[in-house]
Amino acid sequence: MIPRVRLLHETNPQKYFPALFALHDQGRIRLTGTHRTSVCKEWLRAGLRDRAPLARRTVNAVQDASFRIRQHRICGEIIVLGFAPWDARLLWYQGLARRNRIVYHTSWPDWHMDRTPRQPPLIRKAMQRRWQRFLAHPNVSTVAVLGPVADALAQTMQTQAHVIPHAVAEGFFTPRRARKGGPLKLLFVGELSAKKGVPQMLALLEKLPKDAVTLTTIGRGPLETQLPANVIHLGAVQDRAQLARHMADHDVLLSLSQRTATWEELFGLVIAEALATGCGVIASDHIGPRAILQDAPGLVAEHDQPAVARLLQSFIASPDALCRFRAAQKPKATPFALPRIAARWDALFQELAYA
Fold first, then answer.
1. Mean local confidence (pLDDT), 33-60
2. Which CATH number fits domain 171-334: 3.40.50.2000, 3.10.310.10, 3.40.630.30, 3.30.930.10?
3. pTM for the whole thing?
């Protein structure tokens, strides 16, 4: 029996679950649908942030609305559900557990309500109880992207979770060309915002010799219009193969994320992707980068900009130092290779299908 699997995610199922699409292509599962949990909000976000074509995002919105209307008829599927803790949308989708197996997928490491982005007013306690009952439902399993996330679930929600990280597509592991001199090429990929460390990155750029470094940014966000003229801005890059080529063409990815009251870098898929291409990574010491890099160099305290500057200056002074840095980091991407992650998802689906 081939498990029938449906994806339901806040924004982009294809970006976060490439392993499941690979299993579908291999005939190990059959994807019956990929949906976003918001209809109007995601239609707007995809247009404003991702600059997605009107036709594509409208088709997605129609399909997502159709799924919402007919979800009570869905039966016998495994539904991978991903959105933030305490999200009130659970009230709409919880009924799917009656006639399907649910896999709740999360990267959130702290389940105390004042540490999460979804804090429903007036009904906080009621929503908390509803979530606890949902995660304890016999048809609901939980997948955490990191070990510390699984530990948090066990401690605060008494829920045992499978640990399956995000996957890095195989195209990111293609060999990188050798560096042939020239300026140190820095790269940023992600939301151009304060929490992602864009102000710190731009301040850092001002302190480095202008002829010794270049900075390229990929993404959209509120600080996009504040990028100086000496930054090469490519906007959003949706094609993963193209993104891999950009990463392979750069020396160091900067991920200088800054904690807020309800957020820190929870995984950092672009970090693992950059490592796979051979691009070095300098990242704030948050839970996600720490789990990926482990004992490799490249982690810095989020406010220690002098440490970042010293690292970059050492790379400018010595290309060999940069080569050693990248070589020490690159093996850390191997555990996130798509075939490995796909095998773990496959084992879980087979277990659920025959339970």
1. 75
2. 3.40.50.2000
3. 0.88
